[in-house]
Fold these 3 entries.
Entry 1:
Amino acid sequence: MNTNVILLGLIQGLTEFLPVSSSGHLALAQIFLGTNLPPLSYDLVLHVATTLATILFFLGEILLLLGEWINGFVNADKRMSEGWSVGWSVILGTIITAAIGIVMKNFAEAASQNSLLVAFGLIFTGVALIAGGFIHTGYGRISVLDGLFVGVAQGIAVLPGVSRSGMTMMSALLRGLGREDAFKFSFLLSIPAILGATVLQALEVGGWNKFISSLPAQWYIGAAVAFISGFLSLYILRKIVLASKWWVFGVYCLLLGVGVVVVTYLGVW
């Protein structure tokens, strides 16, 4: 059995959702350990697997909100529903994320080769998560303006070391949302963003046959591991968010970022 395929699936499933920046960890592994990144085709498979885990985790809420959003086009009363505002918030947030991501794409790719820039991203994430413990939890309802605000945070998270889930949840809390709504909106907004980025990357692979032939052996096992570990990490993260314990991840990111800065400047690696 290809252990590397399984290991990559496990890493993808866990770090995609936990607020520790999967891109930052992959970048550091490549810089300091010389670890080869997975083939683009396999990376796409893993992203699809974790996105499917997100959809399954929120399936009941997605169907309810989607139904309310669609009904809003034919029934004016439904435009007062949660689904109507959440639907437009996700659309606006996705557009903002895509615009920022396109602008920052080249810089983000270059930054992933620089250990100091990755470290600064981790330190920023760490500080944000620790500070999140001091944010007064609100009870606000998700609005279109939240989509704009959280979409900007998600777009900035294209930078390596900056956690997408961490930034979106903290920005949602700053907007006055409760912990449960902040958690939910963060991951609802991630679905079109991850799928959209996956489609764009898939175009770079070049054809279905080339895509299939470039996949490593037993890729489906790694995808299954990514799906299962991703679903479990969502369950764990939800418990942590509701208990306001995300500062633990903040301390981890902060220590890792400072450690990378020290190692880089001392040149001891």
Entry 2:
Amino acid sequence: MNTKKSYPIVLSIAGSDSSGGAGIQADLKTFSALGVYGATAITAVTAQNTQGVHSQLAITPQMVFDQIVAVIDDLHPSFVKIGMLSNAEIVATVAEALVRQPLSIILDPVIVSSSGHRLLSVEAQDILKEKLLPISMLVTPNIPEMTALTNMPLSTYEEKKNAASYLMDYGVKAILLKGGHEEGNIKKDILFSQSECGIKSTTFSSETIYTRNTHGTGCTLSSAIAAFMARGCRMEEAVAEAKKYITEAIRAGANIETGHGIGPVNHAFNPQKMFLNDF
């Protein structure tokens, strides 16, 4: 009798990027490149390219809810990655759909696009903190997003730790504070997590790659973390592997011209076969 097999499955709840470099499109490319099956629940449709966001249209909250439930009821994903949520109603709806599900949630708080276009309403930020942080295992803000979520200074390590502690008070288990917006030849991301002795931190450093092709890097990193965790990695290992993946994806796409603005990374620089689980 043949043993039945299944793929590791990750559900991405995010917006659509018509240029293919970020959002749902970047998530699916990342999942596929890392050998994981990706399912989606689309929260918004954007008209954008490498030069900016032209317009966006939020999906109705009921349709967002229905997409999530349909995927969970049938495919039973083990991990959920959350990206662009667009407005307060969708934030609340996503929380409602997930709150009673035994899922590991990675939240990428997409607030502002790379081109400076606001993708999450100001009023929705409080609902995100109140309803999604308590059920998330990891949140992955960059410096501008962390500033928006905490309204706290982030110049020193202690200030960053204090801001992470503030978000953890809402219930999230860990914070990956991304340092891509900071100056210097080395970029440092800091993973803050809870331990018996308080908040511990692990720093992940990578050499700065000087290129304008960085569209969708945040989406890609959070999706890569979800993919590696779905493959069985513990959080710290998954972050380390995801950091390697996004660094090489940026490097592989650094000199490629796609559009006339901020181009995408090369998600498929080293695609892997689909992972299989026995059950």
Entry 3:
Amino acid sequence: MKKTKLMVSLILVSSLLFTACGTKDNSENNANSGASKDKGSVYVYNWGEYIDPDVITQFEKETGIEVIYNDFQTNEEMYPLIEKKAVQYDVVCPSDYMIQKMAEHDLLAEINYDNVPNIKNIDPVYLKKAEIFDPGNKYSVPYCWGTVGILYNKTMVDEPIDSWEAIFDEKYNDNILMMDSIRDAYMISLISLGYDQNTTDEAQIEEATEKLKKQHPLVQAYVVDQVRDKMINEEAALGVIYSGEAIYTQRENEDLVYVVPKEGSNVWIDGWVIPKNCQNKENAEAWINFMCREDIALKNFEYITYSTPNKAARELIEDEDIRNSTIAFPGDETLNRCKSFTYLGDEVDALYMNKWLEVKN
């Protein structure tokens, strides 16, 4: 998942502009898509590089619905646009804790599951996990999920890495790529100190801040997506990365190893939601239903390499190594030491943001 990083400047006006994907005249409707036969549009807001472009074309061809598609880099970039109703998106893909925040701030419409019959393909395990931030699955449908861990180059470190303490180790000075994300950075620091990643305790947050400040001089760069290319090109020895990105990097550089540290980590779920002020709700539900179709979920998984919660799609994966990958689909031993983020409230969010500013400055 392209996850959350701090946005300290005003959102650029250009982020309000849409990139239209074109209108298709073919209104043929796939029997399994559940899409409306009426032509129209659907305004989609998703993470960057988080869908196979051919899927958009296929959706338009099968439904006759034009897709106006735009992307964002962080939850914090996306949220103000939805909150202020700056743009009327029909379907958006936030992360777990942000879905909870949007629901609690009355920004989401309930999904009519009569229009999303392909929900049957989503593994009940992930629907249950999603209830942590969306009780009753009223507002969201899981799209992708994964873990946060350390990617390291086995030729550039002294020994196998298994602990978060490695990215605080002075011997890796200027060889560390740290996550440029408030929640992820604090998750690492808090867990390494033995605290809950969802803590609201100000003293614990302050202690985690001091640890991050001490780490700051050792960090080569604070990155999100860039960690992928930097690690492939051996510009750093180790970095924090999302599991889906790790799968891609290992295809490009066989010396890279991904590990979920022994102390524990974050397991996240991104899901499709419908903003309350959307103008094309049925088309948004047609989009969500299409994304839940097994062949479409498989196509997206193969393109973006982030874990799919779609059980039917996983059964279609032909590559046995990928189907059984412990990075894409970790077992209980790993997941039992991972935990999801929850929304902590606006005041605590502001506290984390202010402390993160102290770290970065």
